Amino acid sequence: MSGGDVNGDGISDLGIGAPNDSTDGSHDGRAFVYLGHTAWGETTPVAAVVIDHGGGEDGIEASCGYRVDLGGDANGDGYGDIGVGCAGAGGMVGVVFGSAASLAPAVDLVDADLIFQSAETGSQVSEVFHVDAPTGAAGDVFVIGAPGIASGAGAVYAFYGHSGLVGEVDVATADLQIVGASGMAMGSDGLTAADMDADGRPELVVPAAYASAVMAFELGGF
Fold first, then answer.
1. Do 183 and 213 meet the contact criterion of CB atoms below 8 Å apart?
2. Most buried one in 146, 173, 181, 218, CB count within 10 A?
């Protein structure tokens, strides 16, 4: 679950992942985006955007919605974007660009505006998290976790947002790459950022599930 403004109205929106949803196929998964407004009542809200993977027709247990991140601006257009991770079938992270115009009510993640993936089998590219960029930067920093990379060593990849960050992108082309040691599963659940040394710049906080460790790395460019 994640909050952020994806339509530029100044009100936070909400993204919820349901990776075990089987509406479109066994564990194909879905993600739902609810637009914030000032007239919430007690009725059950209706999702403004429903995101799935292949409409369930590809027979892949994609676990779409394994991770959801709202509000990061990948392409520097001033609107927060919708990042959705799929943990199944090798993994992928799709990003749907936000807009002041009406967002499409149904989105197939394979047609997302930006797709992070890996050529490596079993990479489990599935974690997505953004770090707000400093004033004047071209876009926010998108951090992608792939705990299955390098036979389970795992890795984290940081991409600095800009107008050309669009289409299919291999994580191996990241601006910053952090690869774990054997068996660490670096980049698994829990990516975050915090200014841990009070220098005004955020550190990237990275878990490594099978090493029972959490590590912090300085992000350049801040």
1. no
2. 146
pLDDT given for residue 57 in this prediction: 54
Give the three-state DSSP class for 66: strand
Residue 173 in 3-state DSSP?
helix
What average pLDDT does the structure give for the chain?
90
Per-residue pLDDT at 19 exceeds 80 = yes
Closest CA to 82 of 9, 146, 3: 3
CB 212 within 8 A of CB 186: no
Q: Which tens digit of pLDDT belongs to each residue from 183-195? A: 999 998 889 999 8
**Mean pLDDT within 81-98:** 93
**DSSP secondary structure of 118-166:** -SSTT--B-EEEEEPPPTT-SSPEEEEEETTHHHHTBEEEEEE--TT--
Helix, strand, coil percentages for the chain (3-state, nearest 5): 5, 40, 55
| pLDDT > 70: percent of the chain | 95
C-alpha radius of gyration, the chain, whole number: 17
Residue 158 φ/ψ, nearest 5 degrees: -115, 130
Helices (H), the chain: 149-152
